[in-house]
TrEMBL record:
Protein name, as recorded: Phytocyanin domain-containing protein
Keyword Nucleotide-binding attached: no
GO cellular component, one term: plasma membrane
InterPro entries: BlueCu_1_BS, Cupredoxin, Phytocyanin-like, Phytocyanin_dom
GO molecular-function term, one example from the UniProt record: electron transfer activity
SUPFAM superfamilies found in the cross-reference section: Cupredoxins
Matching Pfam families: Cu_bind_like (PF02298)
Residues annotated as domain Phytocyanin: 14-114
Signal peptide coordinates: 1-17
Organism: Salix brachista
Statement: the UniProt record of this protein carries the keyword DNA-binding: no
Alphabetical UniProt keywords: Copper, Metal-binding, Signal
Length: 163
């Protein structure tokens, strides 16, 4: 049962709102946003923005680099609530083609992996790491006796000497 849950977890799609709470707007750092996540085939990108103020173009790498949406456009979206399924393992490039927005930072690319591939990022530490354990010592362990245990041990030792 546990193994089935592990395998099924890898097959579950994720829904990513582009820009998180900032959404698809000027002023967001989409390069940083896209690096926070691992994208797999079947995941869905949701672009939320005010219709008419922005758009989403899926473009070629050359168009992404030039920010010139007159060529190299693979798909266009303009609804204000665009949902794009990542249906292939490949690199995807997205821009906003409204004048100056792409050059102003409204662009990003992602590298989508197969759904069953291992693309898990290690969790970021939430607190300071624990100190390392003390080094192993080659010295003998010294036992400290306190209270009655000392006197009982001394008495037992004395009895043994008498035998």
């Amino acid at each position: 049962m546990f193994l089935a849950m592990v395998f099924l977890k890898g097959a579950v799609s994720e829904v990513h709102t582009v820009g998180d709470e900032l959404q698809w707007n000027t002023g967001a750092n989409f390069g940083s946003w896209s690096q926070k996540y691992n994208f797999s085939v079947g995941d869905i990108l949701v672009f939320k923005y005010v219709k008419g103020q922005h758009n989403v173009y899926e473009v070629t790498e050359a168009t992404y680099r030039s920010c010139n949406g007159s060529t190299g456009v693979l798909a266009t979206y303009e609804s204000g609530n665009d949902q794009i399924e990542l249906d292939q393992a490949k690199k995807y490039w997205f821009i906003c083609n409204v004048g100056g927005h792409c050059l102003g930072g409204m662009r990003f690319f992602i590298d989508v992996k197969e759904a069953n591939s291992t693309n898990i990022r290690p969790p970021t530490p939430q607190s300071e790491p624990l100190p390392p354990p003390p080094p192993a010592s080659s010295c003998a362990t010294i036992y400290v006796f306190d209270g009655w245990s000392f006197w009982i041990s001394l008495f037992a030792f004395g009895v043994l000497l008498q035998l």
